[in-house]
Amino acid sequence: MNQALPLIWRRNLERYQLKGCVCNSCGTAYFPLRKICPKCRSRGKLEQVIMPHGGKIVSYSCIHAAPSGFEVEAPYFVAIIELDNGARFLSQIVDSPNEKVKDGARVKLVFRKICEDGAEGAIAYGFKFKVV
Amino acid sequence: MTKFGEHWTSSFREMVVEAGAHAIRDAGIEGKDLEAIYGGCMASGRFIGQEHIGALLADQMGFNPLPSTRCEAACASGGVAFREGFISVASGMYDVVAVGGVEKMTDISTEDAALALGGAGDQEWELFNGATFPAIYALMARRHMIDYGTTEEQLAACAVKNHANALNNEFAQYHRKITIEDVMNSGYIAEPLKLLDCSPITDGAATVILCATEKAGEFSEKPVEIISSAQASDTLSLADRESLTSLKATRICADQVFKRAGITASQVDVAEVHDCFTIGEVMAIEDLGFFKKGEGGKASEDGETALNSKVSINTSGGLKACGHPVGATGVKQVVEACWQLRGEAKGRQVDEAEYALTHNVGGSGATAVVHLFKRGDRK
Questions:
Q1: Is the pTM of this model over 0.90?
Q2: Which of residues 10 through 49 in chain A touch B, CB cutoff 8 A?
């Protein structure tokens, strides 16, 4: 993916700790971090919180044609995860038997290597999820 | 427009000139009539290392010092450029403008092209985590199958129909008839989407000339009228959307264009919709109001979107079979709408076409742009 180190590093709170935010006006939870609540804009203030580590699968796909940096993992699953506080985002699903990756399956956070940038580039770490 | 395909012997700038000259001749204008240029192009910096496309267009066409502006909205760049050209004429600022769309995608490897296209989604939170652009549409397809019982065969029917239409379009990338079995037997890219559910990597350029309504008669005996235009935005990431099975930006555009034009979806004869993946066509024909939500797959399988059926969808062959040079696609859709409304679509002509619609999507639905056209040579 050829990402410069600052591009990876400045996201460490989100990728290492699953830090997101919640709007103090409407209560909506967001991950990744945002500066402004799109629903409330100036009427709300976003407060940073660690997201819950459990959720469920809303949709999923098994990727066969992998992008650069992910070839050795193919085929692998990605999914839209909905955390227990309602925040939704895309993540890989790992360490789970194929037949268990399905609509509504419960998942929990695991910490994994995401990708590496060649032999000399940075190794990026972050979150993935597994079916429980 | 240029033929869409793999142009190993012509460059970005040669395609631009070919499409531009074609449009100017076709419109019956002369270069001196033009007042401004708009160009749609998504990722020339990634594809050929060239930016500043507005200036390149004016320079290569010999139209300096006219103002020339590039518009970028991922795969909707062409549609957005067309809308900006439309707004500039509608505002009264100009009487005659040219709108081009162009992309040269085959000068780099397929892997690098896939990365460039991935930029249409959310780089930091979708691509970084291992998603590909086909995978993002696959997530929509899977949810559509869960919620509405849509099948892989129904998705395949869109690709089969679009390949059939492209057989009669000399500008299309593929002239190859395919069957449901061909699609079902093509390998998975991202389940449930297979290779033949996906639009290809394509080189191509398309240009149209826009003119104030009251002046159109000076240039053309068969002008086509733009009767309404709409554009809407939604979240960059798929996960943040209200729905995974419907593009809200498309629904908003459809609502606006039909209200403004005072017609309904059932009056549209022919529509070019954004089938970057087959599920894209299924969602589009639902979101635009041609079919009820959840019934787009069955309608496609039942042939209701075929040439001269209930509504003729993607007569050009669509993105799937005509090809998808991302910045050019939105303008190509307008070219096809014009040919249909002028009765010049040859072997793929829709009978008595009166109203046409174009629908262009950027990314996984973060931008949508929809236009409605009416045959302009009879009142």
A1: yes
A2: 11, 32, 38
Contacts of B233 in chain A (CB under 8 A): none
Task: Determine what percent of chain B is predicted with pLDDT higher than 70.
Answer: 99
A114 to chain B, any CB pair closer than 8 A? The answer is yes
Taking CB atoms and an 8 Å cut-off, how many pairs form between chains A and B? 101
The angle formed by the CA atoms of residues B352, B357 and B361, to the nearest 5 degrees, is: 155
Residue type at position B132 = T
Cβ contact B20:B63 at 8 Å: no
Residue A55: which of A25, A21, A31, A22 has the closest Cα? A31
Contact B115 A124 (CB under 8 A): no
pLDDT of residue B137: 98
CA distance B364 to A67: 18
Give the long-range contacts of residues B142-145, CB within 8 A, separation 24 or more: B142/A59, B142/A60, B142/A61, B142/A103, B142/B191, B142/B192, B143/A58, B143/A59, B143/B244, B143/B245, B144/B244, B144/B245, B144/B279, B144/B282, B144/B283, B144/B294, B144/B297, B145/B192
pLDDT digits (tens, 9 = 90+) for B359-371: 999 999 999 999 9
pLDDT in tens, chain A (132 residues): 456 788 888 999 999 999 999 999 999 999 999 999 999 999 989 999 999 999 999 999 999 999 988 999 999 999 999 999 999 999 999 999 999 999 999 999 999 999 888 788 888 999 999 999
Is B211 among the residues known to form the active site? no
> ipTM, 2 decimals?
0.97
Decide: helix, strand or coil at residue B116: helix
Which of B127, B192, B239 is the closest to A80 by Cβ? B239
Residue type, B284: A
d(CA A15, CA A30): 14
Token duo for residue B59:
């320079």
- B244, B131 Cβ separation under 8 angstroms: no
